[in-house]
Amino acid sequence: MIRCLHAITIILLTGFILLLSSFARAPLARGADSAVFAQPGNQPGRGTSALGDPPQPDTPPVDAATNAGAGTNATPTEAVQSAVTVFLPLIARPLPPLPDDWLGRVNGYRARAGVPLVSADVTLNNNCFEHARYMAENNDLTHNQNPSLPYASPAGQICAQKGNAWMGWGGAWRQRDAIDGWMESVGHRLWLLYPTTPTFGFGFYSNGQRSAAGLDVLSRARFDDDAAYAGWPVRYPAPGQQGVPATRYPITLQWPYFDQKPVVTGTSLRALPGTVLGHTTTTDLPVNHKGVAIIPNQAFPPNATIEVTVTGSYKGQPFSFTWQFQTGN
User: Which stretches does the entry tag as region Disordered (predicted)?
Assistant: First the structure.
C-alpha cells in the first residue's frame, strides 16, 4: 500500500522589530574590480536617474502534477513526499525605518506590504554586480548586453534579462536609491513585491560619474506557488501604512502574473476628511502584470490620511476594497 507523506511548510512573515532587524543578509558579491560606493562630501552630487523596462518571464509555469511521468511507466514507491507551501503573512506595527542596505530595504518594503521576506543568492548578486558595472562603464541602461562592449559577460547578461535595471548620473547615489526608484515604478514594484519569490540577487556599481544597479527578480521565481498564496491581491501602499511619499506615488493592487486581468467598475481617492483627489486608473500594466494601478493627478498632500476604494471583479467574483494609509512630510 502506497503511503503518501504530505509535508506542509508554513511560512510565517512576522513583523517583530527584532526579527526584521536581525534578518540574515548575504553580502553583496563583487567581481574582479571592487564596487566603488559614492560617499557624501567627496563625490559629485546626484544628477538624474532612470529605470529600464521591467523584465518579463519567458513562459508560464508548468503544472508538475499534470506533466509528471507523462509518457512513462513509472513504478510507485512506498513513500512519496510532496511539499505544499502555505503562506500566512502577519504584520505587526509599527515597523522600523527602512534600512539603507539593499536587502534590508527590499524586505522593509515587503514587510510593509505583508508579503514574505526574501533571501539573497551570492551567484545572483555577482551576476547583477557584473551587469551594473557594464551599464555604468558603458553608459548603457539595458536588458541586453552588447558582447562587443567592455565588461559584457554571460553572468551579467543573466541579470540583464532577469532583473530590474537602474542608472543614476552623478556620484552620490546609494543602494537604497535604486530600490526606492523601483518602488515608484509600477512594473518594477510588482516584481519587487511579488509574494511567492523567495530569493533575489542585487548588484551596485559606481565609477564616480555614473552609478548603476540590477536586481534579479525572476531567476528564483516560483510561479507554481501562486495558487497556494492566500494574500492576493497585494495592495501597496498597504492598509495602515505610514510615511508614504507625498508625491504622485502609485497605488497598486496585484494578482498572479499568469492569471486573468481584474475588471474595475469604480475607484475613489480622498484625503480625509473629504478632499477628493483626481486620479487615473488602469489595468493595462507594464510587461503584462495583472492588477490595478491608481495614479494621483497631483502629489499627495503631506502628513495626510489617504483613503482608497476600488470595486470590480476578478475571475468573475466581485470585490470591494477600502483602506487608508498616511503620507509623510
Answer: 37-74
Q: Provide the domain limits for residue 280.
A: 232-328
Locus of grid cell 514507491: 77
Select from 286, 270, 120, 87 the least CA-distant residue to 204.
120
Q: pLDDT at position 50, please?
A: 82
DSSP string, 236-264: ESPTT---B-SSS--EEEEE-TTSPPPEE
Residue 101's Cβ-side half-sphere holds a number of Cα atoms within 13 Å equal to 12
Residue 157's nearest CA partner among 120, 124, 200, 116 is: 124
Same domain, 212 and 248: no
CA 162/CA 149 separation, integer angstroms: 20
Of 227, 255, 281, the last residue of a domain is: 227
More confident residue, 244 or 25: 244
- For 203, half-sphere exposure in the C-beta direction (CA atoms, 13 angstrom radius) is 33
Distances (CA, A) of 318 to 169, 262, 289, 313: 46, 10, 20, 4
CATH number at residue 264: 2.60.40.3780
User: From CA 249, how far away is CA 104, in angstroms rounded?
Assistant: 21
pLDDT in tens, 14-54: 333 333 333 333 333 222 222 223 333 333 355 678 887 88
Q: Are 281 and 290 in contact (CB under 8 A)?
A: no
Task: Determine which of 6-20, 99-113, 127-141, 314-328 has the lowest per-residue pLDDT on average.
Answer: 6-20
Determine contact, residues 154/215, Cβ cutoff 8 Å.
no
- Give the strand pairing for 119-120 and 210-216: unpaired
Cα angle 53-238-163, degrees, rounded to a multiple of 5: 25
In this structure, the chain runs to a length of 329
3-state secondary structure at position 59: coil
